[in-house]
Predict the structure.
Amino acid sequence: MKPKLVSKGAERYVVGKVERFDQKNEAFKRATWDPEMRELAKAYYAKYEGREMPKEKAGYTAKELALSMAGWHVALDFGSGLFIGGEGMEAWEAQPVGRTDTTRMPKGLKLEVEDSVEATRVIKSAARLFGASLVGVCGLDRRWLYSNSYHTLKRESKPVEIGNEYRYAIVMAHEMDYEAMKQAPNNIAEAAASTVYSRMAGVVAQLAQYIRGLGYKAIPMGNDTANSVPLAIDAGLGELSRMGLLITPGSYGPRVRLNKIFTDMPLMPDSPIEFGVWDFCKKCEKCARFCPSQAIVSGPPTEEIHNISNIKGLLRWPVDGEKCFTSFALNGTACGTCIRVCPFNKTPGLLHEWVRWGVKNTRWLDSLFVKADDLLGYGKRAQVDEFWHS
Amino acid sequence: MKPKLVSKGAERYVVGKVERFDQKNEAFKRATWDPEMRELAKAYYAKYEGREMPKEKAGYTAKELALSMAGWHVALDFGSGLFIGGEGMEAWEAQPVGRTDTTRMPKGLKLEVEDSVEATRVIKSAARLFGASLVGVCGLDRRWLYSNSYHTLKRESKPVEIGNEYRYAIVMAHEMDYEAMKQAPNNIAEAAASTVYSRMAGVVAQLAQYIRGLGYKAIPMGNDTANSVPLAIDAGLGELSRMGLLITPGSYGPRVRLNKIFTDMPLMPDSPIEFGVWDFCKKCEKCARFCPSQAIVSGPPTEEIHNISNIKGLLRWPVDGEKCFTSFALNGTACGTCIRVCPFNKTPGLLHEWVRWGVKNTRWLDSLFVKADDLLGYGKRAQVDEFWHS
């Protein structure tokens, strides 16, 4: 499963004209304005306003509900949350503080970059020290910028305008806890996601200050401002999967969250990679079978889209965001079942022989593989107590 | 090196009357008001006001200076920093946000604790999910509360008043990066510390919200409000060492930062542990030999103190905070040499046979052990490029 370097990143999925995506059309944003999704949205967003009562059901009792909410704390109260971006930890510029600003570096200092390879190595070392699990760099392909950002709380759109000097994107992946994700879908699995949203807000904030401290511009982001997955593919972090998420080549597989920084610092883009995900996903279909809302399609990749929540012009497996959101809303938690069951999601540290075999032998791969993966206990949902007693 | 459970925590070092420590007397706080330390302090604190220029020397150039400063960003700009506590991420109560507060839990909800062992397990699982490397619980021994807190920037003291309902302390240890600490002392090693201060502010903030979300009170802290080391010893996280820091039994050894939460949630205290540190430190003396400022004493433990920066009434190796700070100020970075050279600081994941031998055979331990530890390359300062190219 050693990745091979390839020339095309997200471009390899492009078969038609790609228009920049309006963030307002993303399913979780639509839920706040689209009349058809309004009722479900009310139920879903009540949780984030402290109006969800704990249930008797394990995984949804007070201790799990509070866990998922506490995980959100830093991302929502000190970062931009999942909103429009540019706020708090993800501010687009250094902020004044006392006699200095948040870079705490002498004014006017600029590190002249003579060697972009060396500069890239420095940025990546810094990103890993700050806590990124994986980091890559790509030239910024502006097709993946949102056309407009949309603020869920303020219900405001604004055009995404990124100056031409922002030529590079630094993309980071942040591992979610394996044991907690084995709980999906319930509030423990949501906590795996929410706590990583909080952690990665801190990481991206520090990396942006670092770049600014060296005299360059940096726009730190979460899910806002641009599609993360194609940028991550361009930056060599992994491949697109049937479930629409990035799959990385390490033991994390799809068990990561992504964020990114745009910068004018001259960096050396990474090569995109391939390690068999496309062929594997064609055969496996495990995520599609287990998806509680049938939001993930089975069958071959297609150019067709489900609704305005999909980008046109791509050959891939489009995810039905309406159905995915419906499942979140009815269940009252984030889901993540697709991540849990994916054969690429394995125990930390193990690049499992089983998956290696599957990737090498995709031509033999059929539903037997999926059944065997289950029989071996992979992707099996854990008992709630297994998390609390681990 | 399997720790054995013992009955006495920090109490084992107490030989006289212990008076609560005034934070104003801690060396880094003294530097801001003690006339004798004023000149050094000016040089030292200029860095945090963006007035330190990069040097030509490797480890102190722009890329390393900016790294240490960026690492501080979250701790200083969103947390309480190293100041008086109670601010930002370490607020003592949940803050209002929209229609709810930062717990995002229904008002008035309280998880009745029937089994404090189970409640403690839940809190520890949450702490680890949020990112703590180690977590323990102790009954709150009020001798370790500061008498007064001191705000370095505002130059204000205020008495530390913690209601009697706060019966427990949850103490967390957070690993610092091994490779970065191998650089000590320079700005990369400072970045290992600063980035962990930022990360652990997020962790303690989330854990405090979690406890509040379950209906209990929580005071989250960094270095403020109480001495962390004796609380960590009481909570079973490790032992006191010659260098005055906690040594944990895993491969981190002393390579951790500590923070803590006081709570009224009924928890089950951990047993303190012993695994041979006291006898080992008696013989090893490596930290004392390598300390650039001779702030760490050689010889047997003593009740004597160096100055007002030490607590009276303890039999241990008192660290000379004035000398330690002087070294920080003259060098222009945090130090950490003692942590780098300590034989208990080993590669992540390895509980090294060598140290295991040393702990078991302290009666044979002499300077030969220290020399051999060096010859094997342990604790050796790394070249600056080794960090950037790792």
